[in-house]
């Protein structure tokens, strides 16, 4: 397949990569850097801070994978992608994985040939309106102008919701969250709709967050999670089990603070297997024994990542809700490490 | 060595394919064609192999599937259950609409600025130079975004029109200028023919009436010219022509019952009337002033290409400057202006694809944007887009060339 790379890039940037990328893990190791696709900027999930350093909930997944694979949580090249460019970037091999508020859907999984490795946030589509409009339900939005990020599942859900309720609206298609925010604040649209978590994150950056309400209707299921290209199962396993390690760590009470101590003296065999002091799980993945330990050490477990970036203590202020551990009545449930 | 070779009867040798000037060009063309075909075949087989390896295929079946998304400006009936093909048609019509509008206004701006840049008035001349240089040297995408941002930031939202003492009021109670676009009264017919589908028929009747008036007045004018040529006396045609223009259309509009639908604040937005969306205005205006600056330079070059003696001779006959320009200089300048004008029209059409920056639903935004993205059929969508722009460009080119042949200097 080597010879086809140049001409293949000329004709269809990217489709040649599907076959050429059967060894992403080796590529990442050889490169010494993980190319991770993120949003162009959504505070709390993925956005550069004042020092230009990427921070956020999705960013932590990228860094955890880099820590597991390369031993350095900072060995990540963040590639900002829009709703429209993200899949091309992944399919073409420009990025090794995508951690970007991307909804796991049938057609993306099956038709677009991607592999969703899990869910790191259970979300649903919501609506935000200015309080002064006095709207209390999304069903009162007949005739409203709605800002919507184009090329997303929310765009399709929106059309379905208004159609199902037999009311009309006028879409204002925009590319990025920042643009949507600007249009919405300028009053060019009455409503902004996207995943409820994204709305909360956007509202947190407003000057007067209290002037805007999130309507109670959640009109869709939006399981958001990292994804990789179809056909490279080894690499898919690495990303999948790194995410699972973060979730399992919270369930088992392993945190960034106590991970060193737990690794050396634990009497829970699953913790020992997770942290590499027992068994050969790391070797099975093609990594060393400390892979999960490094991920947890640098990023913290799932609960810590949640609390630090989007939890109730942060300006974004999201409750755990569906994203609590299964033991606490949520949906987070990692398969066992054995 | 002689460039002519002697005819050699009946002794054709393969080496002659290259050595004989009679065959050489054909040989080279055949070789080039074969190489090109091989190259295309290689690209195609490479694409096919890689698609197969990735488990993908090329299929246009998605065009028949429901699009699932809504569009904010549609010239034909469309809803989210319509097919992707229909969404593409909506986009095509929107592209053609903005390209058509921008071609007209850009030409108007360009001709005015180009002529005024050669004005004898220092201030006017310099102002036009500033206009041309500023707009020509900053990318059109930036103009589109600047104009759109100014519109959304400066104009009031529909909310500002609400309440007993609104902070904004409608202009003459007819027009509303908002950050979502301009709402104007829309005409409709109370006694029109047919129902929903009949509205187009009504407009066709109106257009047919106007065309009829046009030919009638032309007939009257021609008759007047003939009379003048024969007798030396020109009959007064002014009143006849005015009557021919106005009486039929007024009668037709009265019979159809023309009324105006004035926009009104209802719910979240203005309802009724015609909405000219902000994205359309921003795109239209930006393309017009940007391309207008280029056309201005074409017009200036064309005028400068007309010998100064022509102007002097016309002035010596006693023509005023405006008539010198319109009767003597501009007609001769046309042969220089038209060919580059064709490429400017093509540029407008192609630049309209920047519509995506402001959310205008042109073909690049619908077929090449949302449809591509929602179906993942990138290759098919891009191929269709390329075909569309190619066809449109060739059509514009062909049409303008016909016009060029009509106005170019006929050498005898």
> Main beta sheet of chain B, described?
3 strands, antiparallel
Q: In which range does the helix fraction of chain A lie? A: 25-40%
Taking all residues together, what is the mean pLDDT of chain B? 85
Strand order of the largest sheet of chain A: 10-9-11-8-12
**Topology pattern of chain B, helix = H, strand = E:** HHHHHEEEHHEEEEHHHHH
Structural class by helix and strand composition of chain B? mainly alpha
Cα gyration radius of chain A (Å): 21 Å
Which structural class is indicated by helix and strand composition of chain A? Answer: alpha/beta
Q: For the largest beta sheet of chain B, what order do the strands appear in spatially? A: 1-2-7
Q: Pick out the low-confidence regions of chain B.
A: none
What is the 3D shape of chain B? Answer: globular
In round numbers, the mean pLDDT of chain A is 87
Beta strand % of chain B: 5-15%
Order of helices and strands of chain A: HHHEEEHEHEHEEEEHEHEHEEEHHHHHH
Individual helix count of chain B: 12
Total beta-strand segments of chain A: 14
Helices and strands in order:
The complex is a heterodimer of chains A (338) and B (412).
Chain A: H1 4-11, H2 17-20, H3 24-31, E1 34-39, E2 47-48, E3 54-55, H4 57-70, E4 76-81, H5 86-91, E5 97-98, H6 106-110, E6 114-116, E7 121-123, E8 125-130, E9 144-149, H7 153-164, E10 169-174, H8 177-185, E11 191-195, H9 196-204, E12 212-214, E13 222-224, E14 227-229, H10 233-252, H11 259-264, H12 269-274, H13 281-285, H14 291-299, H15 302-309
Parallel strand pairs in A: 1-4, 1-5, 9-10, 9-11
Antiparallel strand pairs in A: 2-3, 6-14, 7-13, 8-11, 8-12
Helix pairs in contact in A: 4-10, 4-14, 10-14
Chain B: H1 16-19, H2 21-53, H3 84-116, H4 122-136, H5 140-154, E1 176-178, E2 181-184, E3 186-189, H6 198-231, H7 238-256, E4 258-261, E5 264-266, E6 269-271, E7 274-277, H8 278-304, H9 308-316, H10 321-351, H11 363-375, H12 378-407
Antiparallel strand pairs in B: 1-2, 2-7, 3-4, 5-6
């Amino acid at each position: 397949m080597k010879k086809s790379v140049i001409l293949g890039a000329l004709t269809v940037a990217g489709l040649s990569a599907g076959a050429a990328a059967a060894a992403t893990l080796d590529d990442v190791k050889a490169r010494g850097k993980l190319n991770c696709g993120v949003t162009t900027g959504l505070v709390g999930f993925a956005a550069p801070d004042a020092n230009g350093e990427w921070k956020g909930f999705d960013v932590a997944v990228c860094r955890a994978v880099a820590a597991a694979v390369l031993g350095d949580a900072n060995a990540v090249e963040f590639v900002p992608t829009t709703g429209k460019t993200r899949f091309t970037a992944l399919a073409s091999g420009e990025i090794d994985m995508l951690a970007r508020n991307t909804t796991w859907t049938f057609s993306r999984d099956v038709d677009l040939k991607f592999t969703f490795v899990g869910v790191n946030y259970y979300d649903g589509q919501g609506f935000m309106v200015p309080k002064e409009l006095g709207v209390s339900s999304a069903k009162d939005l007949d005739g409203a102008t709605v800002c919507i990020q184009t090329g997303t599942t929310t765009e399709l859900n929106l059309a379905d919701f208004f159609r199902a309720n037999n009311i009309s609206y006028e879409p204002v298609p925009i590319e990025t969250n920042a643009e949507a925010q600007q249009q919405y604040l300028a009053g060019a649209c009455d409503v902004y709709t996207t995943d409820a978590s994204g709305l909360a994150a956007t509202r947190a950056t407003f000057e007067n967050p209290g002037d805007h309400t999130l309507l109670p209707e959640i009109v869709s299921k939006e399981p958001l999670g990292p994804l990789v290209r179809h056909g490279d199962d080894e690499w898919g396993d690495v990303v999948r089990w790194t995410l699972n390690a973060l979730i399992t760590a919270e369930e088992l009470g392993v945190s960034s603070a106590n991970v060193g101590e737990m690794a050396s003296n634990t009497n829970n065999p699953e913790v020992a297997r997770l942290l590499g002091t027992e068994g050969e799980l790391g070797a099975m993945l093609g990594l060393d024994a400390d892979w999960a330990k490094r991920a947890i050490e640098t990023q913290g477990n799932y609960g810590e990542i949640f609390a630090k970036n989007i939890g109730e203590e942060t300006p974004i202020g999201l409750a755990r809700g569906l994203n609590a551990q299964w033991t606490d009545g949520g949906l987070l449930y990692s398969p066992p490490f054995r | 060595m002689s460039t002519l070779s002697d005819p050699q009867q009946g002794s054709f040798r393969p080496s002659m394919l290259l050595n004989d000037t009679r065959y050489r060009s054909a040989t080279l063309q055949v070789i080039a064609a074969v190489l090109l075909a091989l190259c295309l075949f290689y690209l195609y087989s490479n694409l096919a192999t890689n698609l197969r390896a990735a488990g993908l295929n090329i299929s246009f079946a998605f065009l028949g599937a429901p699009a699932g998304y809504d569009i904010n400006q549609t010239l034909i009936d469309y809803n989210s259950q319509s097919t992707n093909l229909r969404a593409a048609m909506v986009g095509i019509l929107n592209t053609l609409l903005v390209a058509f509008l921008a071609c007209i206004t850009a030409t108007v701006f360009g001709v005015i600025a180009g002529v005024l840049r050669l004005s004898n008035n220092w201030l006017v001349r310099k102002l036009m130079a500033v206009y041309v240089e500023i707009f020509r040297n900053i990318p059109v995408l930036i103009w589109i975004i600047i104009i759109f941002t100014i519109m959304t930031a400066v104009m009031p939202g529909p909310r500002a029109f609400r309440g007993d003492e609104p902070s904004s009021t409608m202009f003459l109670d007819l027009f509303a200028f908002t950050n979502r676009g301009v709402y104007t009264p829309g005409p409709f017919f109370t006694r029109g023919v047919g129902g929903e589908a009949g509205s187009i028929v009504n407009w066709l009747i109106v257009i047919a009436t106007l065309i009829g008036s046009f030919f009638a007045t032309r007939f009257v004018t021609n008759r007047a010219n003939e009379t003048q040529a024969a007798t030396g006396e020109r009959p007064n045609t002014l009143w006849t022509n005015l009557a021919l223009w106005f009486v039929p259309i007024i009668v037709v509009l009265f019979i159809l019952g023309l009324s105006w639908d004035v926009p009104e604040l209802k719910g979240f937005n203005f309802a009724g009337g015609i909405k000219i969306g902000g994205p359309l205005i921003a795109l239209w205006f930006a393309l017009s002033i940007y391309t207008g600056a280029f056309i201005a330079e074409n017009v200036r070059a064309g005028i400068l290409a007309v010998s100064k003696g022509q102007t002097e001779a016309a002035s010596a006959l006693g023509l005023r400057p405006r008539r010198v320009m319109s009767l003597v200089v501009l007609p001769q300048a046309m042969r220089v202006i038209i060919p580059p004008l064709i490429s400017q029209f093509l540029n407008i059409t192609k630049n309209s694809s920047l519509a995506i920056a402001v959310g205008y639903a042109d073909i690049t935004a619908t077929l090449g944007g949302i449809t591509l993205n929602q179906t993942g059929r990138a290759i098919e969508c891009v191929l269709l887009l390329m075909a569309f722009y190619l066809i449109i460009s060739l059509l514009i080119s062909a049409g303008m060339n016909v016009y060029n042949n009509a106005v170019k200097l006929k050498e005898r």
